[in-house]
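Encode chain A's predicted structure.
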Amino acid sequence: MHKTLQQLKKQYQNGEKIVCLTAYDASFGHWLSEAGVDVILVGDSLGMVVQGHVTTLPVTLDEMVYHTQMVQRGNQQAWCIADLPFMSDSTLENALHAAARLMKEGGANMVKLEGGERVLPMVTALSSLGIPVCGHLGLLPQSVEKHGYRVQGKDSDSAELLLEEAMALQEAGIDMLVLECVPSMLAQEITANLAIPVIGIGSGSETSGQVLVLHDMLGLTVGKSPKFSKNFLLEGGSVQQALSDYVQAVKAGTFPEACHEVG
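Encoded structure for chain A:
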């Protein structure tokens, strides 16, 4: 039986770190589940690590549904989040359609969409329909053509805006937030001000949990891996051991280290 949102919230309230990893097929859905990963994210990062694109932008809704289906065939216990791919949330109607497909056809438990003020109407509508929603602030991979791959919220104005957007997203109805590549002090502040789990990636150690791209934490990424990541396969010796080590490191708070963030 898959973990429920209520169980994740209780875990968060008890101060237990939430472990998240991406997956894109049934085999890894199975092994992440076996290792005790709490949340599997079927990320549009598949466009880069599976399909070989240079960004996530080419990924289609059909492809996200397909990969979510595969992951859920292997997944036995983890909560599953699926990304709304680029431009699938360009209008309220599009967002509702995409979320419905990811949940009805893909079998996702939750959908994730990127951005702050722009997506508030979508979050409100999805939440009112009983669809669990995860927000995503900081570095937004679907906006890299405009903003690039760099740390967000480094100056006081942008940091204040990120906090305001996080609060607004919570008010609109998100149940979880991914915070990507923001300074650790800001991530800590946002986490402290929200009453929902904040999952960090490249955002320091003081969030409610951590997520990494599967290929990064197994050292399989073609080209340069993010410096906030860690190759757990080097010490683990097998994929299964690497996954187990990652779960234990996040739970114990030893990954990431306190200074482990992007610069």
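The first strand starts at residue 18 and ends at 22.
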